[in-house]
């Protein structure tokens, strides 16, 4: 590696892949590779050297084996909807698109499982399961486009994960290959598998440990009915308190979401969900189950929210209204996209009790950087999505946005939370990893990476920073006032 | 006992390459391959570090007695949703997480590992490392906390754990239905495919017990649907979880067989007790491993006086080599519970 000119290297790699892949499955002309230059995080772009589009497991195995032999980095990609740059291509490597793995192989209704290929869209699984009264629970807002393979890589969540869990709670088994092209099967169709829980380790590993070629998911019985309470609050902290009160009452709602006033104003113009525009914040609290169960829970939720100071409340009267209440929340990102040329979505998670403090901090940052920041919040599980509005054509706005975001993420760590709840670290938050983790913790992450991929070829440079990178970033996790690894150069 | 003292003990053992047998109350000494090494007793490192009922998270040190932890949760109307077996009053949280075992509620609520949010782990260098955290959603870094759950202490000392907790169900009742094994398997799987508040199932010798948990109207409606006789069963579920039920008595080896829940009766001699909607089958037959493999599952020699046979089902060679490399990454001197999970680790 290194000696050959990039174009020579490109031709060599493309030729090696063409030896067993059809012409349409190997792309290297710029006009063909351009669509792969970024994922959902468009601020980062890089043309891949070569794009490979395999259709069979055997082709995936040979691509990995070939790339390992030639020491070529490989980056797997699903639908490219990821928000942290996890599928940002390698300029000197192969972008492995799993887009052609789009078959639902089997829905086993009695066993409540589905076996699907990784390129199957999240929503397509529930569509395939619907005739059996079953569905796949995790529902990230991009569910009509994002693939299950990408969900596995990122351990995606959604608006119902307080009750139904994340991807890791709903995937039973993965088939795939290591970077060297060795076949592995993790988890099983039984409730567990012998040995270490490599299934849990692989989920959320951002495509750095294995390439997944088949996924078995757990299906759940579709709740008979669902209703949502929409409640207004004249104060954001009161709304936060109401969330704690709901939990304290022993209620685990199917969904519990919060939006602040700037967010409701943005979405109301976009979809007309019927939100109370006078409220400082609104809560959406969903109950699902049997009709008796839902009636009972909705009554209790209303009681708790009233006591917590809700100024207005309405309960969805039918399915159409329920979907309308949710439509605003689910389209919050595109709605914000209409009121600002660009927006930057953050993904920190905090202990809920620190919500007031963090929202105040975000308010202060809006003033400090002169940028607006509406907030949508998976209130039930503490996952914040502040959206910084900026204009990418203004270099200084972009710079201020990045500083703004970094400060907010570091605040999340400071209050006992994390820099990413569900979008992943990717390239976007890699420097903040140096804030959340100590060097010896990062070292163990890197050792785990090497255990799966000693040559460090699979999605290299994502998610886990090297210690040198942290030293350059200059904001090391410092405990007890002692700088770790004094031997490393500082910049 | 301080964390530093535990770390120092581990550093010394690593320097001497002297195996350590990590041990809490010893309630699970019977589980896994023969324990080896000097005992490192974790009971001195105990106590609940933080518990915020409205955050649904509890953090406690490894030596905390499980009884004490569950009591603290019960006082706030909450519980460990995976209903872990104790196997003795001396069971500790650390042992519970290291063993990774779940109880009757597993099929509906999830397994122990599903509720692990974070750990503080002392690795083979004696470094105290924090992974995961105290929040529900966290994808920063690899999920090493769930990896530690069920690793039988072979990757490091789980010094502190944060777990997601849930409210206790408002109402709970158990129904008993007479059914043969095949019919019971069909029924359990059919119920699991419907939105019913079934929180536990157990079938043995023609008798199927179904526990319903949840809001009163949901439980009442489900009870009508399922039928059978309502029985007083608090003690029954406890006996199943703790393996004090008559089926678990005697000296015959006890096999834990995990299979796809809807696979038909395994036809094992010696009888069976079935839990988890059919996904967990306890057997007392020597050919359990073969039966499990045929059914697409795996078998663990759960209790036996004779452990010449490997306790856990052998791993595929590629997966075993990943295990070995992970073990070397966490515990390069190979001091933590050597051989307890597999001879190679």
Largest interface: A-B, 97 and 87 residues
Strand content of chain A: 15-25%
In quaternary terms, these chains amount to heterodimer
From the N-terminal CA to the C-terminal CA of chain A, the straight-line distance is 28 Å
Principal-axes shape call of chain B: globular
- Gap between N and C termini of chain B: 28 Å
| Residue fraction in strands of chain B | 25-35%
Shape of chain A: globular
Q: Percent of residues of chain B in helical segments?
A: 25-40%
- Pattern of helices and strands of chain B: HEEEEHEHHEEHEEEHEEHEHEEEHEH
Low-confidence stretches of chain A: 478-491
Radius of gyration over C-alpha positions of chain A, nearest whole angstrom: 23 Å
Query: How can the largest sheet of chain A be summarized?
Result: 7 strands, antiparallel
Indicate the structural class of chain A: alpha+beta
Describe this structure in words.
The complex is a heterodimer of chains A (about 500) and B (about 350). Chain A has helices spanning about 5-20, 30-35, 55-70, 120-130, 150-155, 160-165, 165-170, 200, 235-250, 260-270, 290-305, 320-330, 330-340, 355-370, 395-415, 430-435, 440-450, 465-475, and strands at about 25, 50, 75, 95, 105-110, 115, 135, 170-175, 185, 210-220, 220, 225-235, 255-260, 280-290, 310-315, 340-345, 375-380, 385-390. Chain A is α+β, with helices and mostly antiparallel strands and about 500 residues long. Chain A has a seven-stranded antiparallel β-sheet with strand order 15-12-14-13-17-18-16. Chain B is of the alpha+beta class. Chain B contains ten helices and 17 strands. Chain B has an eight-stranded antiparallel β-sheet with strand order 13-10-12-11-15-16-14-17. A five-stranded antiparallel β-sheet of chain B has the order 3-4-8-6-7. In chain B, strand 6 (about 115-120) and strand 7 (about 130) form a beta hairpin. The longest helix of chain B is centred in the first third of the chain and has 14 residues, at about 5-15. The two termini of chain B are about 30 Å apart. At the A-B interface, strand 9, helix 8, helix 9, helix 11 and helix 17 of A face strand 7, helix 5, strand 9, helix 6 and helix 7 of B.
């Amino acid at each position: 590696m290194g000696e050959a000119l990039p174009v020579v290297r490109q031709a060599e790699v493309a030729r090696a892949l063409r030896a067993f892949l059809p012409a349409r499955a190997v792309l290297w002309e710029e006009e063909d590779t351009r669509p792969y230059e970024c994922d959902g995080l468009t601020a980062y772009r890089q043309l891949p050297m070569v794009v490979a589009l395999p259709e069979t497991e055997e082709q995936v195995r040979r691509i990995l084996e070939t790339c390992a032999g030639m020491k070529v980095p490989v980056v797997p990609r699903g639908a490219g909807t990821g928000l942290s740059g996890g599928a940002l291509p390698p300029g000197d490597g192969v972008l492995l698109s799993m887009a052609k793995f789009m078959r639902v192989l089997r829905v086993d209704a009695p066993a409540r499982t589905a076996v699907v290929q990784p390129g199957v869209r999240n929503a397509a699984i529930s569509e395939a399961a619907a005739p059996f009264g079953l569905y796949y629970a995790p529902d990230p807002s991009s569910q009509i486009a994002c693939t299950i393979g990408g969900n596995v890589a990122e351990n995606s969540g959604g608006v119902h994960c307080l009750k139904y869990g994340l991807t890791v709670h709903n995937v039973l088994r993965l088939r795939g290959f290591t970077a060297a092209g060795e076949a592995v099967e993790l988890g099983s169709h039984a409730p567990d598998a012998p040995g270490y829980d490599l299934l849990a380790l692989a989920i959320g590993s951002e495509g750095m440990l294995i390439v997944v070629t088949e996924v078995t998911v757990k299906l759940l019985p579709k709740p008979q009915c669902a209703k949502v309470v929409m409640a207004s609050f004249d104060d954001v902290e009161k709304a936060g308190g109401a969330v704690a009160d709901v939990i304290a009452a022993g209620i685990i709602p199917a969904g519990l979401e919060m939006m602040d006033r700037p967010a409701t104003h943005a979405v109301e113009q976009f979809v007309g969900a019927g939100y109370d525009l006078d409220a400082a914040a609104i809560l959406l609290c969903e109950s699902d189950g049997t009709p008796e169960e839902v009636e009972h829970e909705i009554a209790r939720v209303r009681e708790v929210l009233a006591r917590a100071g809700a100024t207005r409340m309405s309960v969805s009267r039918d399915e159409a209204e329920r979907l309308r209440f949710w439509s605003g929340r689910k389209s919050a990102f595109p709605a914000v996209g209409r009121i600002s040329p660009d927006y930057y979505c953050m993904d920190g998670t905090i202990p809920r009790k620190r919500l007031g403090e963090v929202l105040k901090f975000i308010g202060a940052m809006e003033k400090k950087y002169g940028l607006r920041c509406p907030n949508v919040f998976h209130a039930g599980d503490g996952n914040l999505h502040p959206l910084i509005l900026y204009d990418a054509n203004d270099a200084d706005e972009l710079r201020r946005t990045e500083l703004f975001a970094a400060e907010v993420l570091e605040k999340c760590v400071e209050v006992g939370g994390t820099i990413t709840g569900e979008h992943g670290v990717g390239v976007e938050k890699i420097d903040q990893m140096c804030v959340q983790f100590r060097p010896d913790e990062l070292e163990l992450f890197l050792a785990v990476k090497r255990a799966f991929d000693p040559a460090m070829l699979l999605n290299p440079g994502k998610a886990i920073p090297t210690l040198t990178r942290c030293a350059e970033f200059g904001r090391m996790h410092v405990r007890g006032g002692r700088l770790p690894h004094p031997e490393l150069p500082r910049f | 006992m301080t964390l530093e003292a535990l770390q120092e003990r581990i550093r010394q053992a690593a320097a001497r390459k002297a195996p350590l047998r990590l041990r809490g109350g010893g309630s699970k000494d019977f589980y896994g391959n023969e324990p080896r090494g000097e005992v490192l007793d974790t009971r001195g490192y105990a106590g609940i570090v933080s518990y915020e009922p409205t955050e649904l998270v509890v953090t406690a040190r490894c030596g905390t007695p499980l009884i004490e932890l569950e009591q603290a949760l019960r006082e706030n109307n909450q519980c460990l949703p995976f209903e872990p077996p104790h196997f003795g009053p001396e069971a500790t949280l650390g042992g519970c997480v290291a063993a990774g075992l779940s109880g009757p509620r597993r099929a509906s609520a999830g397994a122990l590992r599903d509720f692990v949010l974070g750990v503080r782990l002392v690795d083979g260098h004696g470094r105290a490392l924090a992974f995961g955290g105290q929040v529900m959603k966290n994808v920063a870094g690899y999920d090493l906390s769930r990896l530690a759950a069920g690793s039988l202490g072979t990757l490091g000392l789980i010094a502190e754990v944060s777990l997601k907790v849930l409210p206790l169900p408002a109402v709970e009742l158990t129904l008993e239905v007479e059914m043969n094994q095949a019919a019971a398997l069909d029924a359990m799987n059919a119920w699991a495919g419907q939105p019913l508040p079934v929180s536990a199932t157990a079938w043995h010798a023609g008798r199927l017990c179904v526990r319903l948990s949840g809001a009163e109207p949901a439980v009442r409606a489900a009870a009508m649907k399922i039928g059978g006789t309502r029985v007083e069963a608090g003690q029954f579920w406890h006996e199943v979880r703790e393996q004090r039920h008559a089926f678990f008595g005697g000296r015959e080896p006890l096999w834990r067989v995990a299979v796809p829940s809807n696979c038909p009766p395994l036809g094992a001699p010696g009888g069976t007790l079935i839990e988890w909607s059919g996904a967990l089958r306890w057997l007392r037959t020597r050919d359990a491993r073969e039966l499990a493999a045929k059914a697409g599952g795996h078998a663990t020699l759960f209790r036996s006086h004779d452990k010449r046979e490997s306790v856990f089902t052998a791993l595929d060679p590629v997966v075993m080599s990943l295990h070995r490399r992970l073990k070397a990454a966490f515990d390069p001197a190979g001091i933590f519970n050597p051989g307890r999970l597999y001879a190679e680790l």
